[in-house]
Amino acid sequence: MKNTTLAFAFVSPALLFLLAVLGWPLVQAAILSFQDVGVIGSEGHFIGLGNYATILGDAGFWRALGRSVVWVLSNALVQTLLALAAALILNQKFPGVRIARTWIILTWIVPTVVVVIIWRWLLSPSGGMINPLLIQAGVIERPVGFFATREGAMTTLIMINSWRWFPFTTLMMLAGLTRIPGDLYEAARIDGAGTFQRFKRITWPLLQPTLMVLGVVGTLLSFNVFDVIWLLTAGGPSGATQTLPVLIYETAFKGYRLSEAATISVLTSILLMGFAFLTTRAMTAAEADR
Amino acid sequence: MMGPTRFLTIAGFAATLLAGTAYAEPVDLTVWHMEQPPHRVQRMKELLDEFNAAHPDIQVKQEPQSWGEVYAKAPAAFAAGNGPDLLFTIPDFTTVLKGINVVVPVDDLVKDLDSKHGFVEATLAPYKYDDHVWAVPAYNMAISLWYRNSVLKAAGVEVPKTWSEWQAAAEKLSTDGKSGIGLPANKQLYTDQTVYSFMVNSGAGDLYNDDGSIAFDKPETVKAYDFYSKLAKFSPADNSTWTWGEAEACFANSSCGMILQFGVINTYETQAEGDAADLGVAPVPHADDESASATISYSNAIMLTTKDEAKQNAAKVFLTWLLEPANYGRFLTMEPGLFLPVTNDGAKAESFWSDKTVTKYKSQVETMIANSQTGKLFGFTTGKVFPSIGAISAQNVIAETLQRVVVDGQSAADAARPGRRVCPKSPPNSGHAGERS
C-alpha cells in the first residue's frame, strides 16, 4: 500500500466524523440560506439569493462585522501582550515556578458562567469591589457602570475575555520558549548581548512559528466567542457589543428569521475559511523559506 | 384435558389482559414553566405530587425553563419533536408558537372553566383571536410603584401621582449615594415592561395602527421616552444591565428609593425589613395632562401543545384541578404577593388569602389587584393581534429604542423615529393579523 493511501486510511475516520458533525450542518445552513424560513420548525420556500442581497445590503451586518474585527484585533493584542509577559516570567527559574505554571491556567478552566458571575459582581456599582477601589485610588468620584456606555462595555468585555483566555496563549508560548536551545542565550551572553538584544535577536524570531499558529487559532476562537458577550451584555448597550455571532443568534431566535441567520452564518464561514486558508498558506511559505 | 400449548396460550392471554387493566401505564404530561426560583419550583412540585397522588392514571412532571431562552428553545424543541405537553406563556409568546401550529385551541375547556370560576375578561382577551382561545389564563401580573413610607416621609415627599411630582420625588430621594428611583435601561423584557408603563400613562398604549403599521413615533410615545430618560438619570449607573432581580435587590437593600416592579413583597419580607406597615405600593404615576393612572398587565396562561388525544384529556383534567379554588390559591402563592388571580372565585379563595405572607401584606395585595384592573399590554390593545408582536417582544424593540436615548444620547424624537425602521419584519410565513373574537 502506498504511503498516501495509508495516510488517507488513517485520517478517514476523523474526516468522516468531521463531515458528519460539521459538513452536514454547513450544507443544511447553506440550503436554509436560499429559503425564507422564519421560526424554527416552520415551512420555507426557495427564494434564491434574496437573503444574500438583504444581508449584504443591511448596514447592521456590516456594523456587526466591524465590531467583530475590533473584537478580534483587540483581544489578540491584549492577550498576546499579557501572555508574552507571563510566559517570559514563567520561563525563568525561581522558587514556586511549577505552582505558578499550574495556577495560571485557573482562569481558563473556570466555566464561562462562573467567570461572568464573578465579573458582574466585581464590577457592579452597587456592592462590587472594583468601584470602591477606584474611588479610593482617586480614579473616579462616584460608581460607574462598566457596561453602561458603548465604549466602556466593549472595552470591559475585551478585558474580561482576555483575562479568561490569556493563560491558554501563555501555555502555548511557554511551550515555544522551552524549545529554544539554552546554548543560543549562552552564546549571545558571551558575545555581550543584553536582555533586550537577546529577546529581539533570539526569543522573538524563534517564537514566530508559535505566534503564527496562535494567530490563526486565536482569531478563529475569538471571532466565534458568543457566551461571554451574550451573558454579560447580550450585545448591548444599544448594539455596541453585537458581534456577528450575537447578530446570528438574535436574527434566528429573537427576530425569527432563521434563513437570514443562516445566510450570515454562511457568509461568516466563508470569511473565516478564507482567512484560515490564506494564513495557512502564508505559514507554509514562511516555513519553506526557513 | 387441556394440552400444555393451549394452557400456555390461554394463560398468556389472561396475563396480558390483567396487565392491561390492572397496570395500565399512566399518561405522562410534561409541563414547561418559567418560574425558576427554587421556592416556586418547590411549590409546583408539591402541587404536582398532590395531583399525581390523587390521579394515578396521570403523571405530571415539571421542567423549569427561563424566559430569556424559551423564545428560542421552545420552537426548536417542537421542531425536534421534544416539546412539552403544557407550556406556560404570555400573550406575545403564544403568537410565536401559534405561527408554527403547535398550539391546540382550548375553547371548550375555557368555556367550562369560565362557567365554573368566572375568568376576569381582561386576562382572557389577549388569548382570544382567530375564532379560538389559545391558552388557559393562570395568573395575572401588573406593574406598580413600590416605595418605603418612612423614606418618603423623611424626604418630605408625598406619594407621586403625576409625572412632575414623580420627578421631584426622585430628585429629592437621590441623596447620599442613594438612587431616587431604580429604572432599568437594559435591552430586555423588564425594560420593555417599564417603558410601556410610561407609554400607557401618556396615552401611547396602542403600539399598532389599525393597518398593522407600528405607531411608534407618536408625540405621546416620544413624551414617554423623554420622561423615562429624565427619570432614569436618578437610577444606578449599571441599570443598562438590569433585569427584575437587580431592581428588587436595589429596593431591598435601600439603594433605590422607588422602583417599578410587579411585586417585591417576598424579597422585602425575606431579604429586607419585612415591615408591612412601611412598604408602600401605588399606581404608576401618569403624565400631567392625563387624568388617571394605567399600567402594564400580563396575564400568564398555559397552552396545550400536544396532539395526542389521551394527553389532551389528561391535561384538561390537570388544568381543571389547578383552577379549583382549594388548589388555585396555593398555586398563586408560589410567589406570595406577585401572582394575582384571574378568576372571580380565585380572587376570593381562602387558599389565597390565608397564605401568611398575603395575610401580612393584605393591603398591598389589594392595591396590586386594583392596579391590575387598569392594565394593558403592548400589541394587544386594538382588538387585532398582529403576528409581528412576537418578534417585537422577543427583540425588545421598545427597550432598544430607549437605549438610543439613554445610552446613545439621542433625543427621544430621533430615537422613536427610527423605531419604525428597527421594528422587525414579521417572521416569514407567520400569518396575518388575527381578529379578536
Summarize the structure.
The complex is a heterodimer of chains A (290) and B (437). Chain A is mainly alpha-helical and 290 residues long.
Layout of helices and strands, plus pairs?
The complex is a heterodimer of chains A (290) and B (437).
Chain A (H helix, E strand, L loop, with lengths): L2 H31 L16 H7 L2 H32 L6 H7 L2 H4 L2 H12 L6 H7 L13 H29 L3 H9 L4 H29 L3 H6 L11 H11 L3 H32 L1
Chain B lengths: L3 H19 L4 E7 L4 H17 L3 E7 L2 H13 L6 E4 L1 H9 L7 H11 L3 H4 L3 E2 L2 E2 L2 E7 L1 E5 H6 L8 H11 L5 E4 L6 H11 L19 H14 L11 H9 L3 E6 L3 H7 L7 E4 L12 E10 L4 H14 L2 H8 L17 H4 L2 H5 L1 H11 L2 E2 L7 E2 L2 H7 L2 H10 L5 H5 L2 H4 L11 E2 L2
Parallel strand pairs in B: 1-2, 1-3, 8-9, 11-12
Antiparallel strand pairs in B: 3-11, 4-5, 6-11, 7-9, 7-10, 13-14
CATH class of the largest domain in chain B: Alpha Beta
Q: What is the correct CATH architecture of the largest domain in chain B?
A: 3-Layer(aba) Sandwich
Q: Quaternary status of these chains?
A: heterodimer
Class computed from helices, strands and strand pairing of chain A = mainly alpha
The CATH H-level homologous superfamily of the domain at 58-256 in chain A: MetI-like
Kindly report the average pLDDT value of chain B: 88
Tertiary shape of chain A: globular
Morphology call of chain B: globular
Order of helices and strands of chain A: HHHHHHHHHHHHH
Largest sheet of chain B: 6 strands, mixed
Number of helices of chain B: 21
- Structural category of chain B: alpha/beta
Q: Look up the CATH topology of the domain at 58-256 in chain A.
A: MetI-like fold
The N- and C-terminal alpha carbons of chain A lie at a distance of 33 Å
Query: Radius of gyration of chain B, Cα only, in angstroms?
Result: 24 Å
| Average pLDDT figure of chain A | 91
